[in-house]
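Ticket #4471: structure output looks truncated?

Reporter: J.K.
Steps to reproduce: submitted the chain below (142 residues) through the standard prediction queue, then opened the result file.
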Amino acid sequence: MAAYPRLQLNRGMVMLRYKQPFLDWIKASNQEPFELTLEEANDDGEVFLVPEYDSEKNPVGCTEDAVKWVEKRWRMLFEHALNGWVQDETLWPGNLTLKMFREWFEVEYRSMVWDMGHEPLMVEDFDDGMGDEMPDAGDVLH
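Returned output as attached by the reporter:
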């Protein structure tokens, strides 16, 4: 075998796939009408690398585990997704709930993540100016 995947990361992969209510909100919050299908909205979604174990050392090794992991962080992920489309928080839905999160997103999970690059991994930290102050566990991804 000449070339094959050999560097497996100690992470799983989660994608939040938009459902119709999220797409409806995107269109309603935009002042200019535009065409966007659910397929187009989901075409280039963000990927979140998740730990093999959550903070309680429970495995995150299947979709059910990943959904539990995501739902511990649902508000932060919901706000991250909203901000990706509309930065003006006054245009966001008023009362975000876990029920709404479940109606607006589907969790897609993959347990095997392979590094196919030749260059070292680069991690870019999008520090929000919090400094040494750490938020609650539900407000951060890790």
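Triage note (M.O.): checked the attachment and the full token line is present. The chain has a mean pLDDT of 85.
Status: closed, working as intended.
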